[in-house]
Amino acid sequence: MRNVDISRLNEMYLDILKELGNIGAGNAITALSTMIGKKVDMQVPKVKILDFQEVSDIFGSADTIIVGIYFDLDGDVNGNILFALDIKSAASLIWSLMGLEVKEEFDELEKSALEEIGNIMAGSYVASLSTLTSLNMKISPPAISIDMAGAILSVPAIKYGEISDKILFIETQFIEGEKLIKGDFFLIPDINSFDLILKALGVEVNGK
Amino acid sequence: MENKIYRVGMADAKVTQSPGILTTIGLGSCVGIVLYDPITKISGLVHIMLPYSNKISDNSNKLKFADTGIQVLIEEMVKLGANPKRLISKIAGGAQMFSSKINSDIMNIGERNAVATKEVLGKLGIPVVAEDIGGNYGRTIEFYSEDGRLLVKTIGYGIKYI
Q: What GO biological process terms are annotated to this protein in UniProt (chain A) (predicted)?
């Protein structure tokens, strides 16, 4: 098995991944804006590379409750996508979409609304990557989990764990009305797909 | 004497002696493995992410895997004075965080981690005296080296000692 060392990806790869994240997230947010029928302002996404130890704390603490919406990715590129949101952001999205105030817990209707929001955002994210790379990619139906950040983020961490000791994700922040919504996209291509994406973009993978 | 709390992250391990407390917060598909020598009360906790190190090309991080993680933990505990023949274990985690609709490898990784953990412990002759494994929810665990209790906390699935 070949090994893509994420920690040693050079600046150029990072720029490309950042740009992919930018375009993907831009499309995702345009889709969201269309869905809720309101203008959404997006800030420039940040590409983050963290150790396993740090990743469970990106929402403050490993026991912070967050929402995770998870997809399988298949086609030319195989892998997974996780869209993670803090509870406040998820509640804001529900409010924007349905005009419902989330009480203490998300009920089934609200959960499926979140799955649908995730579905549309991840779908347009992937569609833009697919156009950019001319690689065929499609996502599975969404699966949702509302639980401790550490537990949800263990899923992408394990996936990355098979190829690296680091984890890469794209943090997006957008503002709808007066509400700041923060969401993190984890695009986790399988080992072979990682190279394929870079190659499709004309990047030579040097070294191993 | 103050009870010191040691936090163990992903692919991480800590050892302590009574009355130290070992904790890992938000275990998902990973498995938290506690080893305990009931006589010396020397305790260790390792938070593994993947089953076997020989399945992965980059396996330099020993604490990431069940097989090598348990090995390292035992070595560290023996250094503190634990007797490897006396060790018992308690394990928790191995959840499937995202259920049903999707059918992929990662879906079973929790289960595979739990199975590998038990195989490795079995081969070493270390009995698993308590476990809280599986489900589709996260767990926070705290191990009290003073009396060997393991606290398991969840969101919506209760709190218990095992």
A: chemotaxis
Tell me which chain B residues have a C-beta less than 8 angstroms from the C-beta of A153.
26, 28
What ipTM score was computed for the predicted complex, to two decimals?
0.89
Domains in chain B with CATH codes = 5-161 (3.30.1330.200)
Query: B66-96 pLDDT, tens per residue?
Result: 999 999 999 999 999 999 999 999 999 999 9
Q: Please say whether the beta carbons of A12 and A203 come within 8 A.
A: yes
> Is B58 at the interface with chain A, CB within 8 A?
yes
Q: Is B120 tagged catalytic?
A: no
Contact B121, B70 (CB under 8 A): yes
Domains by residue range for chain A, with CATH: 6-200 (3.40.1550.10)
Strands (E), A17-130: 40-42, 46-51, 65-75, 79-86
B106-130 tens-digit pLDDT: 458 899 999 999 999 999 999 999 9
**A2 part of contact set with chain B, CB < 8 Å:** yes
